[in-house]
Amino acid sequence: MSEEESVAMRASQKKAKLKAKATTFIDPFVDFSFKRLFASDESKPILIGLLNHLFVGRKLIKSIEYGRNEYPGENAEEGGAVIDVICTDADGSKFILEVQRGYQKYFKERALFYASRVISEQAPKGGRKDWAYELTEVYLLAFLEDFNLPDCSRTEYVQDICLTNRYTGKIFYDKLGFIFIEMLNFVKKPDELETNLDKWLYALKHLTEFKKRPQYLSGPEFDQLFNLASYANLTKKEKEMYNTSLKYKWDNKNVLDYAIGEAETKGKAKGIAEGIAEGKAKGEYAKAIEIALKLKAKNTHLDEIAELTDLSIEEIEALV
Q1: Residue 60 pairs with which residues in a beta bridge?
Q2: CA-to-CA distance for 213 and 224, rounded, in angstroms?
Q3: Could you give phi then psi for residue 260, rounded to 5 degrees?
Q4: Nearest Cα residue to 173 out of 161, 182, 183, 184
Q5: End-to-end Cα, the chain, rounded Å
Q6: How many CB atoms lie within 10 A of CB 93?
Q7: Where are the alpha helices (H) located in 60-182, listed in sequence order?
């Protein structure tokens, strides 16, 4: 990485840190915040409320239990899956929650892969004959913050997908579903919020813009949301974790902007390929920075951090 690029990266991290301190409420679409708001015992009422607003008329969820989010492959060579949040309701239905901040070429395939992992994990190690493939429901819900699904409407902000018969339009299998929430398409203003789901999406999209909680976002679920999302309520360690998570988001945004800029400068065919390749290299560097910061916080020896991340000792020492 050139000196100019290093300066730009440090400026991005500084900007993210300033942004974090300037907001009353945290950004819900960074890793730390997403797990704080949707994957803790305190946040159960928030998640139950959101799920019920999404499945209104189809399901009524009264309680949930969080499950492990790592699903290794069948063998060492096979890739596993690391899911942002997964929970199970009292009826055994499983809900996978993901947040995708930027464009990913095979995002649909990734969603299918994650859901398939959770389905295949239901198979017992023995006695499959007695089990007879009696599957529980599996749903994947994904927040798409800064990109749209290809070949989908730009006016609909919720895509509710299930397996249907192509010819009759009737549902073929109702125990597997995908809900994609495209935040770019959600452009409603406060006086246009018609449903509880609208209020939830508006709150999440504009959370960092609020100086205080709006009166039109009231109720026990929002009490819990704004309490957990308050930057002032974070401990010193939580603020450091949030700032690190926010830096990573900004760095990834810079990677995407860089790739787009290169594509525009060099032409579509060659430029996109070169821009994405250089952007990917920047993304790998940003990930190394994130890992190094976490290891440094645990007082890991600098030589070991350098070996794990391929960063130089000087780069690691400069991280704060």
Answers
A1: none
A2: 12
A3: -65, -40
A4: 161
A5: 19
A6: 18
A7: 107-120, 128-131
pTM: 0.72
Lowest mean pLDDT among 98-102, 124-128, 260-264, 302-306: 260-264
Q: What whole-number distance in Å separates Cα of residue 149 and Cα of residue 144?
A: 8
| Element at 270 (helix H, strand E) | helix 268-297
What's residue 304's pLDDT? 75
Residue 81 structure tokens: 């899956």
Long-range contacts (CB closer than 8 Å, 24 or more residues apart) made by 232-235: 232/24, 234/26
pLDDT tier for residue 312 given thresholds of 50, 70 and 90: confident
pLDDT per position as a tens digit, 254-306: 655 555 555 555 555 555 455 545 555 556 777 778 788 878 877 787 877 87
Polymer length in residues for the chain: 320
Cβ distance 96 to 116 under 8 Å? no
* Burial of 195 per CB tally in 10 Å (0-12, 13-18, 19+): exposed
